[in-house]
Amino acid sequence: DVQLVESGGGSVQAGGSLRLSCTASGLTYIPGCMGWSRQAPGKEREAIGTDINGGRTSIRDSVKGRFTISRDGSKKTLYLQMDNLEPEDTAAYHCAAGRVLSGGMCGFNIWGQGTQVTVS
């Protein structure tokens, strides 16, 4: 089965760091696009950022400078390095994979179950 498995979530104090991982398994191809999103209780899911082909990343302005997206050499594991965490970062973090659409946007078709991050 094709699946994305996130790990690395947990509880941390404000100012701390966490590194989330997302590994794609069961894929016979390297996803052109992988990305992270998050959803806090009572709020809509928001995109955090994407990695295209393991070389081009983008990240939302509100976490720029604190969060970094990267992909490993196999290009099937995506990371989210989160530093200087704030209570407002508390959410379920999900990764997704898909293909690159015309115009450079990501078309996600595989989603992970999510990993919880709690900042106090």
List the helices and strands and how they pair.
Layout: E1 3-7, E2 10-12, E3 18-25, E4 33-39, E5 46-52, E6 56-59, E7 67-71, E8 77-82, E9 91-100, E10 106-111, E11 115-119
Parallel strand pairs: 2-11
Antiparallel strand pairs: 1-3, 3-8, 4-5, 4-9, 5-6, 7-8, 9-10, 9-11
What does this structure look like?
There is one protein chain. With 120 residues, the protein is an all-beta fold. The protein contains no helices and eleven strands. The strands form two sheets. Strands 2, 4, 5, 6, 9, 10 and 11 form a seven-stranded mixed beta sheet that branches. It has a four-stranded antiparallel beta sheet with strand order 1-3-8-7, with no helix packed on it. The termini are far apart. The mean pLDDT is 95.
Instruction: Estimate the helix proportion, in percent.
Output: under 10%
Radius of gyration: 14 Å
Poorly predicted tracts of residues: none
H/E series? EEEEEEEEEEE
Round the mean pLDDT to the nearest integer and report it.
Answer: 95
**Largest sheet geometry:** 7 strands, mixed
Distance between the terminal alpha carbons, to the nearest Å? 36 Å
Tell me the overall shape: globular
Number of strands: 11
Helix tally?
Answer: 0
